[in-house]
Amino acid sequence: MHRRTFLQLAAAAPAAIAAADHKIPKYRVVSHYQAAAQPGMPGPYAGQVASVHAGKCIDEASEKVDPAVVREMMSKGMRALTGDADVRDAWARFIAPADIVGIKVNCSGAPGIMASPAIVAEIVRNVMTAGVPPEAIWIYERFEDQLESVHYDRYVPKGVHIWAAETNRGSTEAYDPATYVETTFFDEDDTRSNLIRMVGNRFTKIVNVPNMKDHGASGVTGCLKNIAYGNFSNVARSHSGSLTNTYSFIGTLAAVEPLRSRTVLQVMDGLRGIWHGGPFSFGRRFHFYPKRMLFGTDPVALDRLLLDIIDDKRKAEKAVSVWDRSPKYLGPDDQHQVNPNVNQFVREPGHIEYAAGLGLGVYDLDKIKLKSVEV
Amino acid sequence: MPLAFLAILLPTLYWDRPVATADALHKAGIERLYVPAGQEEPWRKQGFTAAAFDRAHAVQAVAPAVEYRLDVASATRVPWVDANGWRFERARSRAYFYDVPAGGAAFAAAEAFAYGVEAGIRAVPQDVAPFARMLKFLGEIGQPNLPSRANIGVVDDGSDAMGELLNLMARHNLLFHVIPAADTKYDLNITQIPAAADPYEYTMRIRRELTDEKRLLRIFGSNLVLVRLTGDASEARVHLLNYGSATVKGLRVRVLGPYEHGKVSAFGHPGAALEEYGVQDGATEFTISEVGLYTVVDLRRDSN
Q1: B284 in contact with A, Cβ within 8 Å
Q2: Could you tell me which chain B residue has the CA closest to the CA of A186?
Q3: pLDDT (tens digit per residue) in A44-93
Q4: Does the beta carbon of A6 lie under 8 angstroms from any beta carbon of chain B?
Q5: Which CATH number fits domain B217-300: 3.30.230.10, 3.30.70.270, 3.40.50.280, 2.60.40.1180?
Q6: A342 in a domain, yes or no?
């Protein structure tokens, strides 16, 4: 088999955004997929975010989510984003009956926090209303143990696939050997991170469903981290000691075709969030309840808002800012898990601005058009 | 070491248990034995091809294993692998002796075979059957008369520090030969180790100076598979030794050079296949669907 390979110049990030203390590794991006005429990211609503708040979407004591409120939030959010009067028209802008739809959930903090089943179920319902049969809908994640702990099957119609790339951690069968990012961070032996095969050979559209979470390595984990680290193999290699390469690796991965073109919608679950310890949930102490969902096509714009949501909460809790790079806050993981003023890694919230430099969206708050809706 | 009865160099069971165990060995399919000196005759009378093996004068091989060492700080989170390939490269003409715990004999046989060294392997009785199955497999795949291939030539001073460097290079699949003097046929020659050099850092420096692009053989998808490469201008054999306990599903292999045809043979995995095989940019890449204990891939170029 001889394949024509397009080498994408992901490493050619604007020098201006490569901060002086960030050494950008040399990335070799290999993909034979071409970009769509209009890639899904940043998509038709670059620099736009619809934010829907609903005080009754979740009960803080029980963390029980109200599906009826979620339905209303999603309807209003999608209509606010698109300007359509009918939510069906809004979904039809993104999903066609012939599409095979991947719903990229986030279960890395499950069962404490994950893409809420009520939200995922409502997305499935809307995708089906757009004419897609359940058999053409795939709820997916990288790790089977995390995905199965949520039991999405209890919330969605029969026929919807619930699928994980790695049934055993580290297995590579589900990844495309011809689509990868090659780089070396810390002299690791395996220098490739491969894209999930289904992204290239099955899904025609992807809906990204991250949570609102702090992240010990990348500062926050939102749209970009979920779509990047959640679709490629062998990404933990970007961390070593107290350092990570999340600053440049997240955006580089997210920009790989066909992932970039096929990820057409971002639905951020902020019913509850994690203000410390993310992406994991080390108990309720670090949960908080924004009671909000963000809608858009621009992952950078959503994540830019997420940065302030998480950092504001951390300030309110008198925790060190996600922007603080001081070594004095570094400590071991067991302390990080219980103390919000201990960082396991030097955080890299700048990964969002870096991704903007790769053309994935709008970072400047002054240029982000926010439509706020109350339910 | 006295051994001339093998057409190909197969590892041999070292057996110092009573002759009364002969039936069990026959039942397992064992035909050849190394035995302590003076015990050849009784075994020959039982129908075995038996030769004396002086384990005290053989090089002691370690029992192949993986050590995770989660409690030890290190430069890498990759688990350590106890392997003998570097020893074999260091002294190819020596005979080696393994004394392996239960479950280790078959893999030890594969390791010795992959490097083409003479080895006596002392196994526990329950390992005789899997050992015999491995011998059968090794006999079936044979040992093509192909030269070993390497990127790096190492002038070995015999020191412990050099031994550690060889060990680390083998651990990271940096293919080397031990040579008497620097030779321009190698991409890189190592003639000495700088004083006080950190062995791991120095190994990584070697890798960076060589560059991954020039490496004759690379793998993607496992930190526990070590490789060896033999070959010439028209054919090659890739040896893959999986030191982990789990089958690797979907190991990607890159061999420098265009080999249009490939055939996989995998011990215990008759369904293993080469998938997504391609030749591009002067290299051959393929995925092996299942990599168990020991797998070989025979590659061949078009004759024209």
Answers
A1: no
A2: B76
A3: 999 999 999 999 999 999 999 999 999 999 999 999 999 999 999 999 99
A4: no
A5: 2.60.40.1180
A6: yes
